[in-house]
Amino acid sequence: MAYLQRLVQRYGLGRRQSSPILMALLLSLASLLIGCAQTMAAQTRTYFVAAVDLDWDYAPTGINQISGNAFGESENVFVQSGKKRIGKVYRKAAYREFTDGTFTTPKDVEPRWQHLGILGPVIRGEVGDTIQVIFKNTTGFPASMHPHGVFYKKESEGAPYNDGTSGSDKADDAVPPGGTHTYTWQVLERSGPGPMDGSSILWMYHSHPDEPKDTNTGLVGPLIITRKGSANPDGTPKDIDREFVTLFTVFDENASHYLEQNVTRFTGRPDRVLLRLGDEEFQESNLMHSVNGYVYGNLPGLTMKQGERVRWYLISIGTEVDLHTPHWHGQTALMAGMRMDMVELLPGSMKTVDMTPDNPGTWLYHCHVNDHITAGMMALFTVTE
Questions:
Q1: Rounded CA gap, 65 and 189, in Å?
Q2: Closest Cα partner for 145 from 129, 133, 131?
Q3: pLDDT value of residue 19
Q4: Is CATH 3.40.50.1360 what the domain over 44-384 is classified as, yes or no?
């Protein structure tokens, strides 16, 4: 607008000399300049992400943090190792971010994201951006990165099925162990927040060659898209002070790529266990009812300040038992303008909830399904003054 004022002054176009036609031309020029500025502001955000193997501890503190006590009989169904039980440590796979394309130096996880746990890194985009992910598969099975919500062509879908494609359009489908692939995703208007959303929304990405096995092994992560003009340079929403991402799922370790490896490494009598993988009690012990890969309150990092603008991004994946109802004690929140303190999640759900915590203390955050409570799908969050 200042530029237009200088233009008017330069050519002596005062109020009396201006005309509707001239003003229309100037307004068109302004619109063109704004459009050019918006186009120039769009950027390509590049991430170096690898699927890696790791030993994952579902309860690293060794106790039930909800009760503050040692694990008892009900908890030990899931967390106690033994001759015929794997316990609380499993070989899993996870997406991890690296500093560059050599994939030699893992990128440090910022303190604000320590709570992500088994989840992959937050991948961000602002409407108008391009997201480029250089992916390397260092696991022992084919893997990929399939995104939700963003625009992609066939060479960046990350999912194998009979779609009539061939050649380079199939290279993204299942990256072999040791292989790499570059995924390119466009962040269009339809990828961003809708009329009833806030300034940012959640999508997710996950491996798709064998989706049930891949996700049960651990390959899933968050993809956050911010409305055009509402993002800081790093992609975070301008109007939010703190963000949390929580995945509610029952990781079925019976369906993991590494079940036999876990039996061999972590049970006392692997020869006997391998012959009886269908044993009901053994299978039950491998159903890890977790929040971000932690059980019985072992999830760290859910800390915020009273009065902060907090945004929660909620995900669920899994099977018919993955009907989850995350519930916050002591606080309320807004989802699409509706006041609530509990959200319903189905497998594949991605929901965004805003909270302004007003009640200091340490509070329970858990799935409200009774069976899931018993099995440890609980966490703690803290509001400081």
A1: 43
A2: 133
A3: 57
A4: no
Closest CA to 293 of 46, 92, 35: 92
How far from 346 is each of 74, 207, 216, 220, 311, CA to CA, in Å?
26, 19, 16, 16, 20
- Torsion of Cα atoms, 24 then 27 then 28 then 34, to 10°: 180
Quick one: which of 97, 9, 113, 115 has its CA closest to 47? 97
Owner of token pair 């669920």: 316
CA 256 to chain centre: 20
Domain locations in the chain as residue ranges: 2-33, 44-384
Distance CA(286)–CA(282), nearest Å, equals: 7
Tokens linked to 176: 């072999």
pLDDT digits (tens, 9 = 90+) for 129-178: 999 999 999 999 999 999 999 999 999 999 999 999 999 999 999 999 99
**pTM here?**
0.89
pLDDT at 12 over 90: no
